[in-house]
Design goal:
Largest sheet: 5 strands, antiparallel
Mean pLDDT: 97
Shape: globular
Radius of gyration: 21 Å
CATH class of the largest domain: Alpha Beta
Strand content: 25-35%
Helix content: 10-25%
Oligomer: single chain
CATH superfamily of the largest domain: Medium-chain alcohol dehydrogenases, catalytic domain
Strand order of the largest sheet: 6-3-4-5-7
CATH architecture of the largest domain: Alpha-Beta Complex
Distance between the termini: 43 Å
Number of strands: 11
Length: 219
């Protein structure tokens, strides 16, 4: 590919993001300078935190500047450059954002085992969402067999892993999600004991009925 397509933030979304909030720019592929690597994006992760980065309200992370490439973690392949520890053809987890090509000095990269198949797992269950679920539940929640774990956003990238780990630990797992389809997925595919649709009425009462022994861990 001889050009770089990039999606930049054109304006701050008001409510749900719209296509007009972004702009496609096409330019030359950047060249790797001294101490840099040229990375070509193979996979891009789209995550809920990105909505917060589109806003300039105070947050734990700096907002994406207007006219800047939208932030996002990627699985990328090293196309060129000379940085110790990396070779052309290496697959890495990078922060190239919403574009075909990016540059890195190597300090923000994580090498991916070439045997990992598919490599997109490095953005999901074996990446930030999976690590969030693992550490959050096991190190902080510390569930014990027989306890009740309630998982909000139960079918999301993090919640779906939390529920499955909790089941492996011998817990009763109750999910909360929006819509019948998501709730059915949680119980039939992910193995949750129950899943409550938060769009329906009387959620507190239904949650109490689903957790007669109380809630030990809420994620």
């Amino acid at each position: 590919m001889s050009e770089n397509r990039r999606i930049v933030l054109a304006r701050r979304p008001q409510g749900e993001p719209r296509a007009e909030d972004f702009r496609l720019e096409v330019g030359p592929v950047p060249e790797a300078g001294a101490g840099q690597l040229l990375l070509r994006t193979r996979y891009l992760s789209l995550d809920p935190y990105m909505r917060g980065r589109m806003s300039d309200a105070p947050s734990y992370a700096a907002p994406v500047a207007l006219g800047a490439v939208m932030a996002g973690q990627t699985v990328s392949v090293v196309e060129a450059g000379d940085v110790a520890g990396f070779a052309v053809g290496d697959l890495v987890v990078a922060n190239s954002g919403w574009q075909d090509y990016g540059l890195s000095d190597g300090r923000d990269l994580i090498r991916i085992d070439p045997a990992l198949a598919p490599p997109s797992y490095a953005l999901g269950v074996l990446g930030m969402p999976g690590l969030t679920a693992y550490v959050g539940l096991l190190d902080i929640g510390q569930p014990k067999a027989g306890e009740t774990v309630v998982v909000a956003a139960a079918t999301g990238a993090v919640g779906s892993v939390v529920g499955q780990i909790a089941k492996l630990k011998g817990c009763k797992v109750v999910g909360v999600a929006g819509g019948r389809e998501k709730c059915d997925y949680a119980t039939t595919r992910l193995g949750f004991d129950a899943c409550l649709d938060h769009r329906l009425a009387q959620l507190p009462q239904r949650l109490a009925a689903a957790c007669p022994q109380g809630i030990d861990v809420y994620f």
